């Protein structure tokens, strides 16, 4: 269970980083 919770948290962190990178790219384009 602990491993599942950790992987879920890391996945959320990864998604957040990708989202921030996408927003920066959009701001750079526009």
TrEMBL record:
Taxonomic superkingdom: Eukaryota
Name listed for the protein in its UniProt record: Uncharacterized protein
Lineage start: Eukaryota, Viridiplantae, Streptophyta, Embryophyta, Tracheophyta
């Amino acid at each position: 269970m602990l491993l599942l919770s950790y992987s879920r948290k890391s996945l959320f962190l990864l998604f957040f980083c990708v989202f921030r990178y996408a927003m920066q790219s959009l701001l750079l384009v526009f």
